[in-house]
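An instance follows:
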Amino acid sequence: MTLLSDRGSVSLLVLGLAAIVVVVSLLTADVAVFLAGRARAQLAADAAALAAAPLTFEGGDAAAEAAALAALNGARLTRCECDRDPTWAPRSVVTTVEVSVELSVLPDTNATATARAVFDPTRLRG
């Protein structure tokens, strides 16, 4: 004999487990999207630093070039240590960029990355 209170309990258990699987799947997807955004930010920071480095010697607006390359990679330049230096001394350029990451379950956030490029003008000599 089956008690009336037991009817449908398996259905509720399956429904609860399905809800947990959906939530875990959405959280996993958010983590993957954030990691992809962080990788995109690192790519943009690397490109920005590499683009700005030669302009610190040759002239031009290194920060504007870094910002342009960051924008081409879907990022926003937040910092550029790329001062003009007309000497033949090696120098470093440091850029920091930010990428907006839209998540489905978690709140939207920004992924930030910093890159450093070393430029040695003496290598330009033939």
